[in-house]
Amino acid sequence: MATTAVSVVDVCRSAQRAARALARSDTATRNRALRAISTALLERAPEILAANERDMQAGRDAQIGDALLDRLLLDHDRLAAIAAAVDQIVALPDPVGEVIDGHRLPNGLDVRKVRVPLGVIAVVYEARPNVTIDATALCLKSGNAIVLRGSSTAVNSNAAMAAVASEAAVAAGLPEGCVSLLSGDHGELAELATQKHYVDLIIPRGGERLKAALEEVATIPVIYAASGNCHVYVDASADPEQAEAIVLNAKTQRPGVCNAAETLLVHSEIAPVFVPRILSALHDAGVELRADERTRALAGGVASAGDGSSVSSLTLAQATDEDWDTEYLALTMAIAVVDSTEEAIEHVSRHGSGHSEAIVTRDTASARAFQLGVDAACVYVNASTRFTDGGEFGMGAEIGNSTQKLHARGPIGLRELCTFKYLVEGDGHIRV
Amino acid sequence: MATTAVSVVDVCRSAQRAARALARSDTATRNRALRAISTALLERAPEILAANERDMQAGRDAQIGDALLDRLLLDHDRLAAIAAAVDQIVALPDPVGEVIDGHRLPNGLDVRKVRVPLGVIAVVYEARPNVTIDATALCLKSGNAIVLRGSSTAVNSNAAMAAVASEAAVAAGLPEGCVSLLSGDHGELAELATQKHYVDLIIPRGGERLKAALEEVATIPVIYAASGNCHVYVDASADPEQAEAIVLNAKTQRPGVCNAAETLLVHSEIAPVFVPRILSALHDAGVELRADERTRALAGGVASAGDGSSVSSLTLAQATDEDWDTEYLALTMAIAVVDSTEEAIEHVSRHGSGHSEAIVTRDTASARAFQLGVDAACVYVNASTRFTDGGEFGMGAEIGNSTQKLHARGPIGLRELCTFKYLVEGDGHIRV
C-alpha cells in the first residue's frame, strides 16, 4: 500500500492501473474482497486499536477537545460496527454492468447504455476514521480504485485500517493499488485535486472549510457532500398536529446532520393558531428560537409551556439577516411568517442550499406549486426532511449527500459512484 | 435582451430569474416559443442577413481566410436549415417531468426521481453563428435559460439572431431573460465561468484553445464537448472486407469531426494480408499515412493502387510519438501493428481521448475484452466510430459530445441538459 515515501502522482498512477483491472473484475471477486476486509478488521483489531490509541494520545496532548476525541475513538464495538457496515455493502446489488437503457437503431445497430465504474475516486475526509473503511468498501464494490486522504489527527488509525483493507483486498484477488492512503501532508490536497490524468472524481467529506479549500484548487471533478440549510413550510391548510410532529422531527431528531431543518416558515393564515403551539413545543424540546417580527408579535399569546415556562415575544430572539442563511447544526431554529406558498418558495430560493425542503399542507395546489417551484435535491410533502439518506431511500449505503445538480444530486450511493458507456454492436455498419 | 450595456452578473441574475419561471412552464408553451423562433428567423431574415454581411465584410477586411468566412456566412438556405432544425427540436419528447425512477419505501413514503431543468446554461462558441439558435432551442426545450457568448467575428450575426430568438420566445409566453447574449468582450469568459450563484453549467463549443482557456478559469461545472482521438482496431479474426469498409468510413466519410478515426491498429496475424490492402485503399482515398516500423515493413509488398501509384515503405511516413496523440481532423491516419487485443486496449488507454473506439472482429472473446477494457463514451464492435452522434443514437439533436465521465458522456442531448430531483410524498411521516 502506498505510504509517505511515494509521491501523490505515483499513488494516483498506480490507482489508475488498478482501476483498469477493477473495471473488468466480476461481482463475486469484489464481494469476496469486501468480506475479507470485514474479517481482517476484526482479526487485526489489536494493531488497529493500538494505532488509534497513539492518535488519541496525540489528540489529548494537543487538547483537541472531547467532541473530536470521541469522533476519533475506536473500540471493539465501533470496529465491529464498521465491519458490519462492510458486510451490508456486500449484500447490495452490483451497480456495474447494469443496462440503463438500450434499443436497436433503425439501421440495425444495437445500442446499450451500460453502467461502468468511474475509475479512480479520491476521498478527502476529516477526523472520523470509520470513513477509511466505509469509503473503501463503497468504491471497491462499485469497481473503483480509491485514494484516501484523511486528517493528520487520525493518521495512525487511518494508516492501520487502510493497510488492513488494502492487504485483504489484494489477497482476495483485487489488483495492487486498489486502495491507497496519502500521508496527510500539507500541500497534498492541491496536488491530488489536480491529477486530471489519473483521478476521475474527488469527494470531500468534511465541513465548509474543506469545501472552500477544494474549490480554491480543484481542476478535476468534485462532488461536494455539502451542507443543508433546510426549511419546513407550514401552509395555510396544514394539519396542525402533523405540522408540529414534522417540525419537531426535522429540527430535533438529530440536529447535527445536514438534513435537519434550520428554518420554519409559517403561512400567515395558520400562524395565529400554529405559531404559539409550535413555539411552545420547540421551547419544550430545548430549541433556541430566532424569530422575525410577525412571529414575535404572535408569541405574546403563547400558553404556558409543559414545564411551566412560557415563550413570549420578550424571550424570542429577533432573527437577523444572517439567521436565514445559517446552518445551525444545533438545537436552534429560525422562524418567519409568510403570506403565501409563493413567498415561501421565494424564501427557500434565496436562502436554501438545495438539499431538502418540506411543505406541510392539505391543499394539492400548494403541494404541487412547492414541488415544482423549489429547486432542491429532495422536496417533501407532509414528511420530515430527515428522510434524505441513502439508507432511507433504499440505496443501501451512501458516501454523502450532494447538493450540486450535475451527475449526483441527493444521496451518493453506489450508482452515483459510476459512469456509463455506450456499447454499440453492428455487422459491418458504416455511416452513409 | 441583454446587450453590451449590461454587466455579466446582471445578465446571469436575470437568466436565473427566467430559469425559475421556465422550470414551471409547460411543454406546450416551450414548443410554441420554439415554433415562434423558427417563424421569426424567416420573417426577419433581411435584418439577420444584413447583420451577417457586416460580419462578413469585417472578416474579409481582417483577412480571416476562406474557411472561416464560409463558416460565418448566412444565406436564405442556411437560415431555412437553422429554422428547420428548430422545428425538429419541437418534435422531440420533452425531457422535463420524466419520472426516471420511483418506488414506495417500506414506511409508505412515495419517492419519485423526476427530471427537471438544470437552470441557467451558458454556451460559449466560436465562429459558426447557427449555434446561437441550435443551443437556444435545445436549452429552452429542456426548460433552461441560456446565456450565449459567441466570438467577436460573428458579433453582429449572433446579436441579430439572439434578438430575434429572445423576442419571439418572450412574445410566445416565456419569461424575459430566458435568452441573453454577452457582448463578446475580452475578460467576459472568466467572469461568466465563475458565476456560481447564477449559472449551473457552462458548455464550450470550440477547439482546444477554448477548452484550455476555460480549464484555467472555470469554477462552475463545465461539460467539455471535447476532441476525439478515435481508433479502429482490426483484430486477427476480422473479416477483411468489413474491416476495410469500416476503416475507410471512420477515416474519410467526414474527416473534420470528432468521431472520425485518427489511428488504425492492426493485429499482427492479419497484418500481412490486411496492411497492404488497407494502405492501398486509404492511399486511393487520398489519406496521408503515418506508420510504425512494422507497418512500413509490410508496405513493401503493396500492389499497385487503383490510380496506378503504389504505396511502399519508402513513401510511408514514419509515425512519431506525437502522432499517436494527434487528432488530425484531416485526411491523415496513423497506423500501428499490435500483437493482441490486450495491446490494442493498452494503446487506446494510453492515447485515446475517451470518445469513440471500434474493434472489427469475428471473435466473441476479443469483442467482449475490448468492450470491457476500453474506457470510452462509445465502444463499437463491427461498426464505424462515425455513429457517435445524438441524431444517429435517436436522441434527436445534440449540443456536442462529452468525453468526460460525470453527468454526460457521449452525445449531449435534451436529457443531459437536465438534472433531477426527488419528490417525496407522505402523510405526516417522521423519522424514528
Task: Give a structural overview.
Two copies of one chain form a homodimer. By secondary structure, chain A is an alpha/beta fold. Chain A is 39% helix and 20% strand. Chain A contains 14 helices and 16 strands. Chain A has helices at residues 8-22, 27-43, 45-61, 66-72, 76-90, 130-141, 155-171, 188-192, 208-217, 240-252, 271-284, 293-299, 341-351, 364-373, and strands at residues 99-104, 110-117, 120-125, 145-149, 179-181, 201-205, 230-234, 261-267, 288-291, 317-318, 332-338, 356-360, 378-383, 401-402, 410-411, 418-429. In chain A, the strands form four sheets. In chain A, strands 10-9-11-8-7-12-13 form a seven-stranded parallel beta sheet, with helices on both faces. In chain A, helix 5 packs parallel to helix 6. Strand 16 of chain A pairs parallel with strand 13 (378-383) of chain B, so a sheet runs across the interface.
Write a brief caption for the model.
In chain A, 39% of the residues lie in helices and 20% in strands.
Notable features of this structure?
homodimer; 432 residues; alpha/beta; four-stranded parallel sheet; 14 helices; 39% helix; globular
Largest sheet, strands/sense/barrel of chain A: 7 strands, parallel
Looking at how many chains there are and whether they match, the oligomeric state comes to: homodimer
What are the segments of chain A in which pLDDT stays under 50 over at least 5 consecutive residues? none
In helices, the fraction of residues of chain A equals 25-40%
Structural class of chain A: alpha/beta
Rg over C-alpha atoms of chain A, rounded to the nearest angstrom: 25 Å
Spatial order of the strands forming the largest sheet of chain A: 10-9-11-8-7-12-13
